[in-house]
Amino acid sequence: MEELTENQQKIYNLYLKHLALSQNRPYNKRKDFSNISDDIKTDLVKLDLFFQRNPEINEDLFFKSGFANLTNTYLHLGFFHTYIAVKSYSKFIKERYNTFIDSDESVNDFIEGLKFIINFVRENKIKLHDYLKITNDKGIFQYLIHLKKQYISLYHLHAFHLKLSDLYEDEILNIYLEDFKKEVLRNTKTIQLFEKIKKILAIN
């Protein structure tokens, strides 16, 4: 078979990273792909096509979700181009959207999201308050793309005073946000009561 493309190498390293983390052992990024088996190459070709056809999927979280939802199980690479893997990812993302905002995991994710937004506006040479105005070449708001790929969360958009109800017309997001939508619409001010997030917003 042909040599792995750069993107296929990246996908394989993401798999190896989460495999190592699931086994509580250190991870070293693989650089030599000369002795990869044809079976693994075939799996990587399938996964590469899958991610191309589903650009809203966060590749890193896709592998993380498989190992998170199926603990104490060795997951071979081929598992990740199955229906079970996709279903596992959907479950994982829905749980992420509905994780209590004051949890340590959510706070860490919030900090990482802030870093992502700051880097994005710097790279695009725009002001922070213009972040919600930026679109891609197809006219789609970049923040929607970032939200779908889990680079940011709804709480970041709330900090920009975006009306969360504007998001619910998006079919893909609506799948994950139904429970969150009910909670936010019931009491939007609830989000403002979480002290950790307030402090982070104040610092940044």
Key structural traits:
204 residues; mainly alpha
Description:
The chain has 204 residues and is mainly alpha-helical. The chain contains 9 helices and no strands. It has helices at 6-22, 38-53, 59-69, 83-97, 104-123, 142-148, 154-159, 171-186, 195-203. It is globular, with a radius of gyration of 19 Å. The chain starts with 5 loop residues before the first helix and ends with a helix.
- The chain-level mean pLDDT equals 79
What quaternary form is this?
Answer: single chain
- Beta-strand percentage? under 5%
* Helix-strand string: HHHHHHHHH
Main sheet specs: none
The first-to-last residue Cα distance is: 49 Å
Shape: globular
Cα-atom radius of gyration:
19 Å
Structural class: mainly alpha
Helix content: 55-70%
Total of DSSP H or I helical runs spanning 4+ residues: 9
Tally of strands: 0
- Regions with pLDDT < 50 over 5+ consecutive residues? 186-190
